[in-house]
């Protein structure tokens, strides 16, 4: 049994240093090849050049008649030209006719231009009369014809490395005949939740024993997939050192990145940092940010991950090291803290490894609807909700029930970064909100009286959240006393 002692947080790393430490971790997977039908949403690993002309032949771009352009010169409504019809060519068939002087061939869109023809007269400008074509419009060579290689010429660059594959790019690859696509690999991310109190959703729960359902495994896994990673869920580890070490080492051998949640703080039973120090390298422990101070960054496994043994073997002489170390990040155990740290620090690194661009972000400026105290000397990532008053002003409400509440992020519209030196945000103070999605829209409130605070008003919004309350409304309902304009009244506010 490994004896553990309590570890204190001394020097907390700056958030910028945590970003840099994670950015320096190697979690990029090897490129892979996938079938064309499975390439949507992937990123090209290498340049694709056209091995053929597209189209590979001169083809008609309109329904009509293939002709020699010079035979139509001077044609018009008042003086049409008459040409002899000598055949027809349809898409997907090889022409068996040659267009001579004074002749025309019926042709379908996409069909191969027959020899001798250099233009197409669209069907709307013609009329057939007993085997004769009446042409009422003059055409020039090349009219309504797409020449071979006009789309992509053989040998030309079609798509470059780093291209995100959407239906448009897949259409081009299809036109080039590409059926196997070289793409950036998805980083494999192992996820481990720790703690004797955790129970998988669906299993029996003993609340008398303080058991709770495992939230982080599934929320973080969803975030990993959204960022472009491939998830491997491992059994949750209790607070036993040997079991925790076994699962972490197994994950490091199989994954590019290992994420654990819980067991990262300074408690005597939170010992995961000791596993990292023994089987890898601990780069930092503790970040000056709220929520999420007890964060770990390091490497796990590999040739250097042999701890005190010095030979890459465990006590039984069996080799447990991989050829190279896996990246490791330890997330806090509270769901809000874990998700905030993941979204802020880890998700960008996964996107970079997968070759994906950063998603569109949006910010709005609003005013604090209530005073919010802080003064803890750490960067605070404060979840907030938004409301719009009758004057069109965006009001910002804290939606923070504590790191242990799973609903804080669900009910919030975005995050306000509060500087470490800030003691409080005053009511009416202007703040910038980083929205969770560019599609977020603040509901509009209709106040019944001038003295009625926004939290008592009814939202006219019926599309952003359906019939549910916004996070800001719920926060204001839950703590009416925090609203600076809330009158002395025994009745709580009612939000819709």
Describe this structure in words.
With 496 residues, this protein is α+β, with helices and mostly antiparallel strands. Helix content is 17%, strand content 25%. The protein is built from 8 helices and 30 strands. The strands form 9 sheets. Strands 7-4-6-5-9-8 form a 6-stranded mixed beta sheet, with no helix packed on it. Strands 16-13-17-21-20-18 form a 6-stranded mixed beta sheet, with helices on both faces. Helix 3 packs parallel to helix 6. The chain is elongated and about 95 Å long. It starts with 14 loop residues before the first helix and ends in an 18-residue tail after the last helix. 38% of the residues are buried. Mean pLDDT is 81; it is low at 1-9, 304-322 and 448-496.
Summarize it.
The chain is α+β, with helices and mostly antiparallel strands and 496 residues long.
Structural class: alpha+beta
Q: For the largest beta sheet, what order do the strands appear in spatially?
A: 7-4-6-5-9-8
Oligomer: single chain
- Rg calculated over all Cα atoms: 33 Å
Q: What is the tally of beta strands?
A: 30
Amino-to-carboxy terminus distance: 56 Å
- Shape, please? elongated
Roughly what percent helix? 10-25%
Question: Which strand-content bin applies to the residues?
Answer: 25-35%
| Major beta-sheet overview | 6 strands, mixed
- Uncertain spans, ≥5 residues at pLDDT below 50? 1-9, 304-322, 448-496
